[in-house]
Structures are given as structure tokens and as C-alpha cells.
Amino acid sequence: MSKQIETGKIGKRGVFTIPASLRKRFGLADGSLVIAEERADGILLRPAVAMPVETYSDESTAEFLLTNVTNLVEYEAARLEVTAMGLNPDSITHRKPGV
């Protein structure tokens, strides 16, 4: 596949119109995100994707810590870590190792 080179135009307020053939080729539509990166030879524009950041409550984190241990030594360490988070390990629903 050969590189496609086209000329675009800078409008008022620095708005750049990407030629339609390139927008179609790279799946860019109204509202699409792009990254503008400074390079030694100019500016590189490329499609961007925004992903939601997944956050966990302290209780979810505690459940993960307590459930994903493989032995009793790790389980006791996880209980201490959950306690240090200000939570009671016995109040968190979880699977104990060996049970």
C-alpha cells in the first residue's frame, strides 16, 4: 500500500480539514479524537482512542486481595493489608484458601 499524500487547509482558529479520502481510510468522523505530535520534521496527526478508566472501591480491592491468595501465609498477609485499609476482613465476602 503506497502512502497517500494530500494537501489540507488551515482555517480560522487553526482548524485543519483532513481530506475526505484520508478521513475515510482511517475511520475519522465528526468528533473523532486525534493525537497531534510534534516531530523534528513537522506535526504527526494520528487517530486516538479514549478508554474509560476502571476504578475499584476499597471493598472490591479487599475482596480481590483476600480471594486471590494461594495459601494461608498469603491469606494472613492479605488480612493485614485489608485491615491497614481500615476494613474488617471478616466483613468482606471472599473465598478462603483451602476451602
| CATH C-level of the largest domain | Mainly Beta
Using the alpha-carbon principal axes, give the shape. Answer: rod-shaped
Structural class: alpha+beta
Question: Any idea how many domains?
Answer: 2
| Proportion in β-strands | 15-25%
General description of the model:
- Helices cover 29% and strands 16% of the residues.
- It has two domains: 9-47, Pemi-like Protein 1, Chain: D (Ribbon), CATH 2.10.260; 58-91, no CATH class.
- A two-stranded antiparallel ribbon has the order 1-2.
- Helix 2 (58-67) runs antiparallel to helix 3 (72-84).
- With 99 residues, it is α+β, with helices and mostly antiparallel strands.
- Strand 3 and strand 4 (42-47) form a beta hairpin.
Task: Annotate the secondary structure layout.
Blueprint: E1 9-10, E2 16-17, H1 20-25, E3 34-39, E4 42-47, H2 58-67, H3 72-84
Antiparallel strand pairs: 1-2, 3-4
Tags for this entry?
single chain; 99 residues; alpha+beta; Pemi-like Protein 1, Chain: D; two-stranded antiparallel ribbon; 4 strands; 29% helix
Put the structure in a nutshell.
The chain has 99 residues and is an alpha+beta fold. Helix content is 29%, strand content 16%. The protein is rod-shaped.
